Request: fold
Amino acid sequence: MIKLSTKGHYGARLMLDLALHYGEGPVLLKDIANRQEISVKYLWNLVESLRVAGLVESYRGRHGGYSLAKKPSEITMKDIIYVFEGRSCLVDCVCNPKYCERSEACVTRDLWGDISNQISDILEAVTLEDMMKRHEEKQKCLSVENISGV
Reply:
């Protein structure tokens, strides 16, 4: 089945963490590592890819760290996932028809292309701001469950 790599999954968590602290100044990777339970070394590799892609800014010095390069409302999940996964194609021939000589006549390729486009559209429609709202709602639900003993 379709599976997101650890880089894509953790990269999304890293970006959500930065979004949740947007406007508070640069965030240290060690703080993100503690909150997300991901090693600093692994996060460093992820944040460098995001920085090169123009999604994250880095700051040196005593008050250094990382922050989003744009507002959470301007960064889509597609922007993030594509940094680590590339364009979403279920099979190689969807992104590159020359990969298979049957591409033009292949009915299943059309289906895989439709599914790939749906995935891309969903990722494009969801911003970090949307994910922040989802996070907030989930936290409220968890608080209610903990209070009620459910």
